[in-house]
Design goal:
binds calcium ion, six-stranded mixed β-sheet, 676 residues, binds MU-OXO-diiron, mainly beta
């Protein structure tokens, strides 16, 4: 049993994810000699190189290639005229409030516990709401979110009414109950506490409307208002559907499961549905099998769970399923396979409140931080990107087998296609490596690996089918030879150039001996942002060119190519641990942080960047101990929704020990585009 202090540490440690990838893909020492040109150097405050090594830079990534003229040339400033950062930057601060530039306001909206659905049960600030009540209230620990204009499926773009869909990544057990989580004398937990904690996870769909005086409010009683929780019935789709590895007592044919968990970031699809990511799903389960099945071992499933839900005192099926230890004679007699039904991207249609969420297994199973779609092109495949936020894990891309047709497109496009993983070469090029038993190159590598250790995992049998491969996505990526990254979090696609940006939040465990060109700092305490251009501007391409957009760090941290200082951070924009990332309609790149606080950083923050000039300005600082995560605006960009997760003592009216994660709505006094 974990004590409260331990739980707090887990809760607040942005690096709590264990390291499981011990492969030596692309060891840096093998490639250093090959890459002595066009390098980006990170320099520090003392004028000397802080990091021993450098990432490559294609200044204006893509402009060095002959075949990708369509991707533009950011170095020469191909941006839209509207791309300005016209606000006065906010200084670092540890003030326990949301700080925004002069002329802006930020107001709390839809905090944890807001009555949202069903009987709209009133929130109890001391934590006395029941599990059933929490199932009808906004969840905890807001994360990725998206605003769907209410008329978007009719081709409209309302900025006054829509569905705000919000992820709830995890929970604060201390705040959820009057005196924290209870453990009974026999080691079990009161079942209603467990029910409440499961209900505080998942997703909220909130129908919201802006009044004539500019105030946003929930549309009380709307049929769209909905909670999806860690217990909501869901369907499995794609290659894993029906696999023997997802057979459970709940679903003997392996087509269904219950709930979505650890919903970090998300991605709206081109057909206006919402894909929610299941990130650190492994922590919810226990498995005491020896040896641990390889798909659990590689993921980090342990012998203790994060919240002890499997110990609910009523022994109900919906709770004991979190114990994946083999106790019965077959998969229909115990929950040995339950963890195989988490770790996916899950599609929710916010406009269909009765709809069953669909787990899209073809997109892979790993610690999905989120997903970002390339702009859909009629007649071309649908393409989306997803990072696996764990130290030394990978960046993936899915390319649909079927072409996009606007009039018929739906989630079934995500059920057949090719999952690729990224390899970043030292010369600034990159490759997408297919993870498919239909790919001869992959099959050759897989067969060569049989009987050997892949990282920590003994790989004794070739994957039996694509479902088996997908349930072991990380292992397949190890075998393919992907590049281990510094915790890939959110991605964003430049709406004009098509370049793809990803945050690499930090990696305290990378050493000088295992740096690679794309992750050149060992250790990497502050993180960086990488970007690439697909060959020929085609998102389905299998090669790309990459560079490093910016190294995060203290004042004086420089991102340098040759003699050119591309960015030098100062008080107006120093930051660490980039996490959230989003392009607004004018191509402002919004960067949110989930990192260390205190001197010189202040609290976690959100900055805006110009992707052409690399000008960066701090726009918002969150309250004490929070992470700033989740950002979207209305189509007219006059209202911005920003997520504030796990604040220490906030908002001001929260009961002591019962802080409330929340959305804040940012507007400009007198109206106007946010950030312009
Ligand atoms: Fe949920 Fe990786 O942040
Ligand atoms: Ca994150
Ligand atoms: Ca993070």
């Amino acid at each position: 049993m974990k004590d409260h202090h331990e739980l707090s540490q887990i809760k607040l440690d942005p690096e709590h994810e264990p390291v499981r990838n011990h492969t030596d893909n692309l060891p840096f020492h093998q490639v250093l000699a090959a890459r002595m040109q066009r390098r980006t150097v990170m320099k520090g405050t003392m004028g000397a190189a802080l990091a021993g090594f450098m990432g490559l830079s294609l200044v204006g990534c893509g402009s060095d290639s002959d075949d990708d003229d369509e991707s533009g040339d950011p170095a020469e400033g191909g941006g839209s005229a509207a791309l300005t950062l016209g606000f006065e930057p906010v200084s670092p601060t540890d003030a326990n409030q949301v700080t925004v530039p002069a002329g802006y306001t930020a107001s709390v909206f839809l905090p944890w516990g807001t009555p949202l659905a069903g009987g709209y049960p009133e929130f109890d600030p001391q934590g006395n709401n029941t599990g059933a009540q929490q199932e009808q209230q906004v969840g905890m620990h807001h994360d990725g979110m998206h605003f769907f204009p209410i008329d978007v499926n009719e081709g409209g773009n309302s900025s006054a009414e829509g569905l705000l869909v919000i992820n709830h990544e995890y929970i604060d057990q201390g705040a959820a109950h009057p005196a924290g989580p209870t453990t009974l004398a026999d080691g079990s937990r009161p079942a209603d506490e467990v029910r409440k904690e499961i209900a505080a996870h998942g997703v909220s769909v909130a129908h919201i409307r802006r009044s004539s005086d500019g105030i946003w409010d929930l549309v009380h009683g709307s049929a769209y208002n909905r909670r999806v929780t860690g217990g909501t019935p869901m369907a499995l789709q794609g290659p894993v559907r029906g696999s023997e590895k997802v057979v459970t007592p709940y679903s003997p044919d392996g087509t269904r499961t219950r709930g979505t968990l650890n919903n970090c970031s998300m991605g709206p699809t081109p057909w206006n549905t919402y894909l929610t990511a299941e990130e650190n799903w492994h922590g919810y389960f226990v498995c005491r099998d020896e040896p641990m099945p390889k798909e659990y071992a590689r993921a980090g499933v342990g012998t203790e769970s994060r919240y002890d839900w499997e110990l609910a005192d009523n022994g109900a099926d919906e709770y004991v399923r979190f114990d994946a230890t083999r106790t019965g004679g077959s998969a229909t007699e115990d929950y040995r396979n339950e963890p195989n039904t988490f770790g996916f991207m899950v599609e929710i249609d916010p406009f269909d409140p009765e709809g069953t969420p669909q787990k899209r297994t073809a997109l892979g199973k790993f610690g999905h931080e989120g997903v970002i779609f390339a702009p859909a092109v009629e007649g071309q495949p649908v393409v989306c990107y997803s990072g696996d936020d764990r130290r030394f894990e990978y960046i993936y891309k899915f390319v649909s087998a079927q072409p996009y047709r606007a009039d018929t497109a739906d989630g079934s496009l995500l059920d057949t296609g090719t999952l690729y993983v990224a390899r970043f070469n030292e010369d600034g090029s990159g490759e997408w490596l297919p993870l498919s038993l239909d790919d001869a190159g992959f099959v050759e590598k897989m067969n060569a690996a049989v009987g050997s250790r892949v990282g920590d995992i003994q790989f004794d049998e070739a994957f039996s089918d694509q479902a088996d491969l997908l349930l072991n996505t990380r292992l397949a990526a190890d075998i393919a030879g992907a590049t281990p990254m510094d915790r890939p979090e959110w991605g964003a696609v430049d709406p004009e150039t098509g370049e793809v940006y990803f945050t690499l939040t930090n990696n305290s465990q990378r050493t000088e001996d295992d740096v690679n060109a794309a992750n050149p700092n060992g250790p990497n305490p502050n993180g960086h942002i990488i970007r690439w251009a697909e060959a020929g501007g085609n998102h389905a391409a299998t090669t790309f060119d990459w560079d490093i957009f910016v190294f995060a760090g203290e004042s004086g941290t420089q991102t340098v190519v040759g003699d050119s200082v591309l960015v030098e951070l100062d008080q107006s924009n120093l930051f660490n641990s980039p996490d959230g990332l989003w392009f607004d309609g004018d191509r402002r790149l919004w960067i949110q942080t989930d990192g260390r606080w205190g001197e010189p950083w202040g609290n976690n923050m959100m900055l805006a960047a110009n992707p052409d000039t690399r000008e960066i300005k701090r726009f918002l600082v969150g309250p004490t101990n929070c992470e700033v995560t989740g950002v979207v605006t209305t189509p007219d960009q006059t209202s911005m929704f920003v997520g504030i997760q796990h604040p220490a003592a906030w908002p001001a009216d929260a009961a002591e020990g019962h802080s409330r994660s929340s959305v804040v709505v940012v507007t400009r006094e007198g109206g106007g585009v946010i950030g312009a």
